[in-house]
Amino acid sequence: MIRQIPLLRNVDLFVRKGGPVELCETISQYHPTCRVSIFTTWPSEGKFTPESIIQRAWLLSSMLYAVHVTCPEFPHSRNFIEHPDRVLQSMILLAPHIKELALQRSRNGYKLSAWRFSEVVKVEGTTSEKPPAKLKTLSWPLDSEITAGQFEDWQIITDFSLLESWTVGCIGDSALLQTIVDIHPFQRLTRLTLALFPPLGDHDSLEFWQAADSMFQSLPSITYLALFGKFLSTFLANSVLPRHGSTLHELKLHGYTQRGDQELQRLQTRGQIGPIFSTHDILQLADRCSSLQKLLICVQRYRGLETDMWTALGRFPRLKELNLLLNCLPQTDANRMPIPPRDLSDFEMSTLTFRPIDNIECRRWFIRDCMINCAIGESLAKEFFTRIHACQHEKSLMKLVIHPLIGQSNQYSCFSPGATRAFIGTYFFNELAFIWKVERDFMSVLHAESEKIPTSSISKDPFPDEKLEILQSI
User: In a designed cystine with 169, which of 80, 140, 147, 448 is the match (CB 3.0 to 4.6 A)?
Assistant: First the structure.
Protein backbone atom coordinates (compact mmCIF):
# COMPACT_ATOMS: atom_id res chain seq x y z
CA MET A 1 0.00 0.00 0.00
CA ILE A 2 2.77 2.47 0.91
CA ARG A 3 4.52 1.75 -2.36
CA GLN A 4 1.37 2.51 -4.36
CA ILE A 5 0.87 5.96 -2.84
CA PRO A 6 2.14 8.42 -5.49
CA LEU A 7 3.64 11.04 -3.18
CA LEU A 8 3.62 10.62 0.59
CA ARG A 9 4.63 13.86 2.24
CA ASN A 10 3.54 13.56 5.87
CA VAL A 11 2.82 10.63 8.17
CA ASP A 12 1.54 10.87 11.76
CA LEU A 13 2.09 7.69 13.78
CA PHE A 14 0.12 7.23 16.99
CA VAL A 15 1.97 4.04 17.88
CA ARG A 16 4.08 3.24 20.92
CA LYS A 17 7.78 3.55 20.09
CA GLY A 18 6.86 4.56 16.55
CA GLY A 19 5.78 1.19 15.26
CA PRO A 20 7.76 -1.63 13.64
CA VAL A 21 11.17 -1.07 12.08
CA GLU A 22 9.84 -2.55 8.83
CA LEU A 23 7.44 0.39 8.51
CA CYS A 24 10.34 2.82 8.84
CA GLU A 25 12.34 0.94 6.21
CA THR A 26 9.40 0.79 3.78
CA ILE A 27 8.55 4.49 4.00
CA SER A 28 12.24 5.36 3.66
CA GLN A 29 12.56 3.19 0.55
CA TYR A 30 9.61 4.57 -1.38
CA HIS A 31 9.20 8.06 0.11
CA PRO A 32 12.61 9.17 1.43
CA THR A 33 11.56 12.85 1.71
CA CYS A 34 8.45 12.08 3.80
CA ARG A 35 8.09 13.87 7.15
CA VAL A 36 7.22 11.51 10.01
CA SER A 37 5.68 12.70 13.30
CA ILE A 38 5.53 10.19 16.14
CA PHE A 39 3.09 10.50 19.05
CA THR A 40 4.08 8.08 21.78
CA THR A 41 3.95 7.48 25.54
CA TRP A 42 6.54 7.20 28.26
CA PRO A 43 7.30 3.58 29.28
CA SER A 44 5.75 2.49 32.56
CA GLU A 45 8.72 0.37 33.60
CA GLY A 46 12.28 -0.57 32.72
CA LYS A 47 15.24 1.65 31.94
CA PHE A 48 14.27 5.07 30.63
CA THR A 49 16.29 5.86 27.52
CA PRO A 50 15.48 7.47 24.17
CA GLU A 51 15.25 3.97 22.67
CA SER A 52 12.65 2.98 25.27
CA ILE A 53 10.42 5.76 23.92
CA ILE A 54 11.14 5.49 20.18
CA GLN A 55 12.92 2.71 18.38
CA ARG A 56 16.47 3.54 17.34
CA ALA A 57 15.70 3.05 13.65
CA TRP A 58 13.20 5.89 13.80
CA LEU A 59 15.53 8.11 15.84
CA LEU A 60 18.31 7.74 13.28
CA SER A 61 16.03 8.18 10.29
CA SER A 62 16.26 11.52 8.51
CA MET A 63 12.48 11.30 7.97
CA LEU A 64 11.76 11.86 11.67
CA TYR A 65 10.45 15.41 11.90
CA ALA A 66 8.48 15.62 15.15
CA VAL A 67 8.24 13.71 18.43
CA HIS A 68 5.39 14.21 20.91
CA VAL A 69 5.81 12.29 24.17
CA THR A 70 3.07 11.86 26.77
CA CYS A 71 4.49 11.08 30.18
CA PRO A 72 1.95 9.44 32.55
CA GLU A 73 2.09 10.02 36.26
CA PHE A 74 2.51 7.01 38.45
CA PRO A 75 0.98 7.86 41.86
CA HIS A 76 2.49 4.81 43.60
CA SER A 77 6.00 5.05 42.13
CA ARG A 78 6.99 8.67 41.66
CA ASN A 79 10.76 8.22 41.78
CA PHE A 80 11.92 8.20 38.17
CA ILE A 81 15.02 6.20 37.27
CA GLU A 82 15.77 8.88 34.72
CA HIS A 83 14.39 12.39 34.60
CA PRO A 84 12.17 13.05 31.53
CA ASP A 85 14.01 16.27 30.71
CA ARG A 86 17.35 14.48 30.60
CA VAL A 87 15.98 11.66 28.43
CA LEU A 88 14.70 14.19 25.91
CA GLN A 89 18.12 15.82 25.87
CA SER A 90 19.63 12.42 25.09
CA MET A 91 17.07 11.98 22.32
CA ILE A 92 18.15 15.26 20.74
CA LEU A 93 21.79 14.13 20.85
CA LEU A 94 20.84 10.96 18.96
CA ALA A 95 18.50 12.73 16.54
CA PRO A 96 19.61 16.34 16.05
CA HIS A 97 17.60 16.46 12.78
CA ILE A 98 14.27 16.54 14.72
CA LYS A 99 12.46 19.84 14.20
CA GLU A 100 9.64 19.56 16.75
CA LEU A 101 9.83 18.11 20.26
CA ALA A 102 7.04 18.19 22.82
CA LEU A 103 6.50 16.68 26.27
CA GLN A 104 3.18 16.60 28.08
CA ARG A 105 1.90 14.84 31.18
CA SER A 106 -1.18 12.74 31.76
CA ARG A 107 -2.55 11.53 35.07
CA ASN A 108 -4.36 8.56 33.46
CA GLY A 109 -7.51 9.06 35.48
CA TYR A 110 -5.71 9.49 38.80
CA LYS A 111 -6.21 12.48 41.05
CA LEU A 112 -3.87 15.37 40.54
CA SER A 113 -0.62 15.03 42.44
CA ALA A 114 1.27 17.98 43.83
CA TRP A 115 4.81 17.06 42.81
CA ARG A 116 6.70 18.60 39.90
CA PHE A 117 9.41 17.04 37.76
CA SER A 118 11.92 19.68 38.79
CA GLU A 119 11.49 18.59 42.41
CA VAL A 120 12.18 14.91 41.72
CA VAL A 121 15.73 14.95 40.44
CA LYS A 122 18.35 17.56 39.67
CA VAL A 123 19.10 17.85 35.98
CA GLU A 124 22.82 17.64 35.36
CA GLY A 125 24.69 19.58 32.74
CA THR A 126 25.13 18.05 29.30
CA THR A 127 28.18 18.38 27.11
CA SER A 128 28.50 17.22 23.56
CA GLU A 129 30.86 17.68 20.64
CA LYS A 130 28.01 17.19 18.18
CA PRO A 131 26.54 20.25 16.47
CA PRO A 132 23.42 21.58 18.22
CA ALA A 133 19.98 20.51 17.05
CA LYS A 134 18.00 22.88 14.86
CA LEU A 135 14.63 22.64 16.56
CA LYS A 136 11.79 24.81 15.30
CA THR A 137 9.36 23.90 18.10
CA LEU A 138 10.08 22.98 21.72
CA SER A 139 7.28 22.41 24.19
CA TRP A 140 7.39 21.54 27.88
CA PRO A 141 4.35 20.93 30.12
CA LEU A 142 2.79 24.29 30.88
CA ASP A 143 2.48 23.48 34.59
CA SER A 144 6.09 22.31 35.10
CA GLU A 145 8.72 24.73 36.34
CA ILE A 146 11.84 25.32 34.30
CA THR A 147 15.04 26.59 35.88
CA ALA A 148 17.90 28.64 34.51
CA GLY A 149 20.12 25.55 34.76
CA GLN A 150 17.77 23.50 32.57
CA PHE A 151 17.62 26.27 30.00
CA GLU A 152 21.41 26.48 29.84
CA ASP A 153 21.62 22.68 29.42
CA TRP A 154 19.25 22.85 26.47
CA GLN A 155 21.13 25.73 24.92
CA ILE A 156 24.21 23.53 24.66
CA ILE A 157 22.44 20.94 22.52
CA THR A 158 19.91 23.18 20.73
CA ASP A 159 20.43 26.21 18.52
CA PHE A 160 17.83 28.51 20.06
CA SER A 161 18.48 31.11 17.37
CA LEU A 162 16.45 28.87 14.99
CA LEU A 163 13.59 28.18 17.42
CA GLU A 164 10.26 29.53 16.17
CA SER A 165 7.81 28.26 18.81
CA TRP A 166 8.45 27.73 22.53
CA THR A 167 6.13 26.56 25.29
CA VAL A 168 8.18 27.36 28.36
CA GLY A 169 6.17 26.12 31.31
CA CYS A 170 6.16 28.01 34.61
CA ILE A 171 8.75 30.64 35.40
CA GLY A 172 8.96 31.30 39.13
CA ASP A 173 12.23 33.15 39.65
CA SER A 174 14.09 35.94 37.94
CA ALA A 175 17.24 33.88 37.23
CA LEU A 176 15.84 32.28 34.06
CA LEU A 177 14.43 35.58 32.84
CA GLN A 178 17.76 37.31 33.34
CA THR A 179 19.60 34.42 31.68
CA ILE A 180 17.49 34.89 28.54
CA VAL A 181 18.23 38.62 28.61
CA ASP A 182 21.98 38.04 29.01
CA ILE A 183 22.31 35.29 26.41
CA HIS A 184 19.84 36.81 23.95
CA PRO A 185 19.41 33.43 22.22
CA PHE A 186 16.24 33.91 20.16
CA GLN A 187 16.32 35.30 16.63
CA ARG A 188 13.33 33.68 14.91
CA LEU A 189 10.90 33.15 17.79
CA THR A 190 7.33 34.11 16.82
CA ARG A 191 5.19 31.93 19.12
CA LEU A 192 5.54 31.95 22.90
CA THR A 193 3.53 30.25 25.66
CA LEU A 194 4.48 30.76 29.32
CA ALA A 195 3.13 31.20 32.83
CA LEU A 196 4.58 33.77 35.21
CA PHE A 197 4.35 33.23 38.97
CA PRO A 198 6.57 35.62 40.95
CA PRO A 199 8.18 34.59 44.26
CA LEU A 200 6.77 35.74 47.58
CA GLY A 201 8.14 38.95 49.02
CA ASP A 202 7.94 42.49 47.68
CA HIS A 203 11.65 42.79 46.80
CA ASP A 204 11.81 39.44 45.00
CA SER A 205 8.57 40.18 43.21
CA LEU A 206 9.83 43.58 42.01
CA GLU A 207 13.05 42.02 40.75
CA PHE A 208 11.02 39.31 38.99
CA TRP A 209 8.79 41.72 37.09
CA GLN A 210 11.72 43.91 36.12
CA ALA A 211 13.46 40.83 34.71
CA ALA A 212 10.25 39.77 32.95
CA ASP A 213 10.02 43.24 31.36
CA SER A 214 13.62 42.97 30.15
CA MET A 215 13.02 39.50 28.75
CA PHE A 216 10.07 40.61 26.62
CA GLN A 217 12.09 43.58 25.35
CA SER A 218 14.90 41.21 24.30
CA LEU A 219 12.66 38.93 22.21
CA PRO A 220 12.07 39.29 18.48
CA SER A 221 8.60 40.38 17.38
CA ILE A 222 5.99 37.85 18.56
CA THR A 223 2.89 37.01 16.50
CA TYR A 224 1.37 34.48 18.96
CA LEU A 225 1.42 34.91 22.74
CA ALA A 226 -0.27 32.78 25.39
CA LEU A 227 0.43 34.42 28.74
CA PHE A 228 -0.85 32.92 31.99
CA GLY A 229 -0.17 33.41 35.67
CA LYS A 230 -0.27 36.08 38.37
CA PHE A 231 0.45 39.08 36.21
CA LEU A 232 -1.49 42.33 36.26
CA SER A 233 -3.09 43.90 33.23
CA THR A 234 -0.70 46.83 33.68
CA PHE A 235 2.28 44.50 33.10
CA LEU A 236 0.79 43.41 29.78
CA ALA A 237 0.06 47.00 28.77
CA ASN A 238 3.39 48.50 29.86
CA SER A 239 5.93 45.70 29.42
CA VAL A 240 4.65 43.41 26.66
CA LEU A 241 2.48 45.33 24.22
CA PRO A 242 4.81 48.30 23.54
CA ARG A 243 7.28 45.79 22.04
CA HIS A 244 4.95 43.15 20.56
CA GLY A 245 1.44 44.59 20.34
CA SER A 246 1.62 45.72 16.72
CA THR A 247 2.77 42.28 15.46
CA LEU A 248 0.45 40.07 17.51
CA HIS A 249 -2.08 38.05 15.52
CA GLU A 250 -3.26 35.84 18.39
CA LEU A 251 -3.34 36.57 22.13
CA LYS A 252 -4.46 34.18 24.88
CA LEU A 253 -4.75 35.53 28.42
CA HIS A 254 -6.67 32.74 30.15
CA GLY A 255 -7.72 29.10 29.78
CA TYR A 256 -10.67 26.77 30.16
CA THR A 257 -10.57 24.85 33.43
CA GLN A 258 -14.09 23.48 33.02
CA ARG A 259 -12.85 21.25 30.21
CA GLY A 260 -10.76 19.13 32.54
CA ASP A 261 -7.47 20.48 31.20
CA GLN A 262 -4.95 18.93 33.59
CA GLU A 263 -2.19 21.45 32.94
CA LEU A 264 -4.48 24.39 33.64
CA GLN A 265 -5.87 22.73 36.77
CA ARG A 266 -2.35 22.29 38.10
CA LEU A 267 -1.50 25.81 37.07
CA GLN A 268 -4.43 27.13 39.09
CA THR A 269 -3.01 25.58 42.29
CA ARG A 270 -0.23 28.19 42.04
CA GLY A 271 -2.68 31.08 41.80
CA GLN A 272 -4.81 32.73 39.14
CA ILE A 273 -4.66 31.49 35.56
CA GLY A 274 -5.12 35.03 34.31
CA PRO A 275 -6.53 38.41 35.40
CA ILE A 276 -9.99 39.83 34.79
CA PHE A 277 -9.70 42.71 32.32
CA SER A 278 -11.64 45.93 32.81
CA THR A 279 -13.05 48.13 30.05
CA HIS A 280 -10.05 50.44 30.44
CA ASP A 281 -7.68 47.46 30.09
CA ILE A 282 -9.45 46.30 26.93
CA LEU A 283 -9.21 49.75 25.36
CA GLN A 284 -5.46 49.76 26.01
CA LEU A 285 -5.14 46.34 24.37
CA ALA A 286 -7.16 47.44 21.36
CA ASP A 287 -5.09 50.59 20.85
CA ARG A 288 -1.84 48.60 20.80
CA CYS A 289 -2.93 45.42 19.00
CA SER A 290 -3.94 46.74 15.60
CA SER A 291 -3.28 43.42 13.79
CA LEU A 292 -4.86 41.08 16.35
CA GLN A 293 -7.16 38.47 14.80
CA LYS A 294 -7.79 36.06 17.70
CA LEU A 295 -8.25 36.95 21.37
CA LEU A 296 -8.98 34.91 24.50
CA ILE A 297 -9.67 37.10 27.52
CA CYS A 298 -11.53 37.07 30.85
CA VAL A 299 -14.00 39.85 31.68
CA GLN A 300 -16.51 40.55 34.45
CA ARG A 301 -20.28 40.46 34.01
CA TYR A 302 -22.33 43.03 35.98
CA ARG A 303 -25.96 41.90 35.66
CA GLY A 304 -26.11 43.22 32.10
CA LEU A 305 -24.77 46.67 32.99
CA GLU A 306 -21.42 46.15 31.25
CA THR A 307 -22.46 47.84 27.98
CA ASP A 308 -19.22 49.82 27.73
CA MET A 309 -17.28 46.56 27.73
CA TRP A 310 -18.93 45.37 24.50
CA THR A 311 -18.09 48.69 22.89
CA ALA A 312 -14.46 48.34 23.98
CA LEU A 313 -14.23 44.81 22.54
CA GLY A 314 -15.33 46.28 19.23
CA ARG A 315 -12.25 48.52 19.14
CA PHE A 316 -10.02 45.73 17.79
CA PRO A 317 -10.09 46.62 14.09
CA ARG A 318 -9.14 43.22 12.62
CA LEU A 319 -10.43 40.82 15.27
CA LYS A 320 -12.00 37.73 13.69
CA GLU A 321 -12.38 35.33 16.62
CA LEU A 322 -13.11 36.21 20.25
CA ASN A 323 -13.13 33.67 23.08
CA LEU A 324 -14.70 35.39 26.06
CA LEU A 325 -14.44 33.94 29.55
CA LEU A 326 -17.31 35.68 31.30
CA ASN A 327 -16.87 35.70 35.07
CA CYS A 328 -20.41 35.36 36.40
CA LEU A 329 -19.50 35.31 40.09
CA PRO A 330 -20.46 38.75 41.43
CA GLN A 331 -17.62 40.97 42.54
CA THR A 332 -17.61 41.55 46.29
CA ASP A 333 -15.84 43.83 48.73
CA ALA A 334 -14.09 42.82 51.96
CA ASN A 335 -17.49 42.40 53.66
CA ARG A 336 -18.82 40.25 50.79
CA MET A 337 -21.14 42.99 49.65
CA PRO A 338 -21.73 43.77 45.97
CA ILE A 339 -19.44 45.89 43.79
CA PRO A 340 -20.58 48.43 42.73
CA PRO A 341 -22.49 48.96 46.00
CA ARG A 342 -26.30 49.06 46.01
CA ASP A 343 -29.18 48.75 48.45
CA LEU A 344 -30.24 45.17 49.17
CA SER A 345 -33.64 43.92 50.26
CA ASP A 346 -34.15 41.74 53.32
CA PHE A 347 -34.70 38.78 51.00
CA GLU A 348 -31.37 39.42 49.24
CA MET A 349 -29.56 39.74 52.58
CA SER A 350 -30.95 36.45 53.89
CA THR A 351 -28.72 33.38 53.68
CA LEU A 352 -29.01 29.90 52.23
CA THR A 353 -26.99 27.05 53.75
CA PHE A 354 -25.49 24.66 51.18
CA ARG A 355 -23.85 22.18 53.51
CA PRO A 356 -25.09 22.45 57.10
CA ILE A 357 -22.50 20.06 58.51
CA ASP A 358 -19.72 22.38 57.30
CA ASN A 359 -21.66 25.60 57.94
CA ILE A 360 -21.26 26.66 54.30
CA GLU A 361 -23.76 29.38 53.49
CA CYS A 362 -24.26 32.21 51.05
CA ARG A 363 -26.44 35.31 50.89
CA ARG A 364 -29.25 35.17 48.40
CA TRP A 365 -28.18 38.36 46.64
CA PHE A 366 -24.98 36.58 45.57
CA ILE A 367 -26.89 33.61 44.16
CA ARG A 368 -29.41 35.90 42.50
CA ASP A 369 -26.75 38.05 40.84
CA CYS A 370 -24.87 34.97 39.68
CA MET A 371 -28.08 33.60 38.15
CA ILE A 372 -28.63 36.87 36.29
CA ASN A 373 -25.05 36.84 35.02
CA CYS A 374 -25.32 33.21 33.86
CA ALA A 375 -28.70 33.57 32.16
CA ILE A 376 -27.51 33.89 28.57
CA GLY A 377 -29.82 32.54 25.90
CA GLU A 378 -29.48 32.41 22.13
CA SER A 379 -30.87 35.90 21.55
CA LEU A 380 -28.57 37.48 24.13
CA ALA A 381 -25.52 35.59 22.82
CA LYS A 382 -26.28 36.93 19.34
CA GLU A 383 -26.82 40.40 20.79
CA PHE A 384 -23.33 40.32 22.33
CA PHE A 385 -21.90 39.43 18.91
CA THR A 386 -23.90 42.17 17.20
CA ARG A 387 -22.78 44.86 19.68
CA ILE A 388 -19.10 44.03 19.22
CA HIS A 389 -19.38 43.68 15.45
CA ALA A 390 -21.22 47.01 15.12
CA CYS A 391 -18.35 48.86 16.81
CA GLN A 392 -15.69 47.45 14.45
CA HIS A 393 -14.54 49.66 11.61
CA GLU A 394 -13.71 46.70 9.36
CA LYS A 395 -16.60 44.46 10.56
CA SER A 396 -14.18 41.53 10.74
CA LEU A 397 -15.63 39.49 13.63
CA MET A 398 -16.66 36.02 12.46
CA LYS A 399 -16.84 33.97 15.68
CA LEU A 400 -17.66 34.60 19.35
CA VAL A 401 -17.40 31.90 22.02
CA ILE A 402 -18.76 32.64 25.50
CA HIS A 403 -17.55 30.54 28.44
CA PRO A 404 -19.38 31.36 31.71
CA LEU A 405 -17.16 31.08 34.79
CA ILE A 406 -18.98 30.22 38.01
CA GLY A 407 -16.01 29.37 40.22
CA GLN A 408 -14.46 26.45 38.33
CA SER A 409 -11.13 25.54 39.95
CA ASN A 410 -11.95 28.21 42.55
CA GLN A 411 -11.09 30.98 40.09
CA TYR A 412 -12.10 34.43 41.40
CA SER A 413 -14.29 32.90 44.12
CA CYS A 414 -14.73 34.64 47.47
CA PHE A 415 -15.35 31.22 49.07
CA SER A 416 -12.99 28.48 50.14
CA PRO A 417 -12.39 25.69 47.58
CA GLY A 418 -14.76 23.36 49.43
CA ALA A 419 -17.47 26.01 49.62
CA THR A 420 -17.03 26.82 45.94
CA ARG A 421 -17.53 23.18 44.97
CA ALA A 422 -20.66 23.08 47.09
CA PHE A 423 -21.86 26.31 45.51
CA ILE A 424 -21.33 25.10 41.93
CA GLY A 425 -22.68 21.62 42.61
CA THR A 426 -26.15 22.63 43.79
CA TYR A 427 -27.87 22.60 40.42
CA PHE A 428 -28.50 26.33 40.65
CA PHE A 429 -26.67 27.05 37.40
CA ASN A 430 -26.93 23.89 35.28
CA GLU A 431 -29.94 25.24 33.42
CA LEU A 432 -28.47 28.71 32.97
CA ALA A 433 -24.70 28.52 32.40
CA PHE A 434 -24.19 27.42 28.81
CA ILE A 435 -21.17 27.72 26.57
CA TRP A 436 -22.34 29.66 23.52
CA LYS A 437 -20.73 29.72 20.10
CA VAL A 438 -21.97 32.38 17.67
CA GLU A 439 -20.66 32.45 14.09
CA ARG A 440 -21.34 34.76 11.17
CA ASP A 441 -21.47 33.22 7.72
CA PHE A 442 -20.49 34.98 4.50
CA MET A 443 -24.07 36.14 4.05
CA SER A 444 -23.79 37.91 7.45
CA VAL A 445 -26.33 35.53 9.01
CA LEU A 446 -25.62 34.62 12.65
CA HIS A 447 -25.73 31.00 13.79
CA ALA A 448 -25.64 30.10 17.49
CA GLU A 449 -25.26 26.79 19.26
CA SER A 450 -24.95 26.00 22.96
CA GLU A 451 -23.30 23.38 25.14
CA LYS A 452 -23.72 22.69 28.83
CA ILE A 453 -20.76 23.23 31.11
CA PRO A 454 -19.57 19.85 32.43
CA THR A 455 -20.37 19.50 36.15
CA SER A 456 -20.14 16.75 38.70
CA SER A 457 -23.22 14.57 38.62
CA ILE A 458 -25.70 14.99 41.48
CA SER A 459 -28.68 12.68 41.71
CA LYS A 460 -31.14 15.23 43.07
CA ASP A 461 -31.51 18.99 43.17
CA PRO A 462 -31.21 19.76 46.92
CA PHE A 463 -32.82 23.22 46.68
CA PRO A 464 -35.71 23.15 44.18
CA ASP A 465 -37.95 25.49 46.21
CA GLU A 466 -35.20 27.99 47.05
CA LYS A 467 -34.06 27.99 43.46
CA LEU A 468 -37.55 28.75 42.19
CA GLU A 469 -38.00 31.47 44.80
CA ILE A 470 -34.79 33.22 43.76
CA LEU A 471 -35.66 32.89 40.07
CA GLN A 472 -39.07 34.41 40.67
CA SER A 473 -37.48 37.37 42.44
CA ILE A 474 -35.47 38.33 39.35
Answer: 140
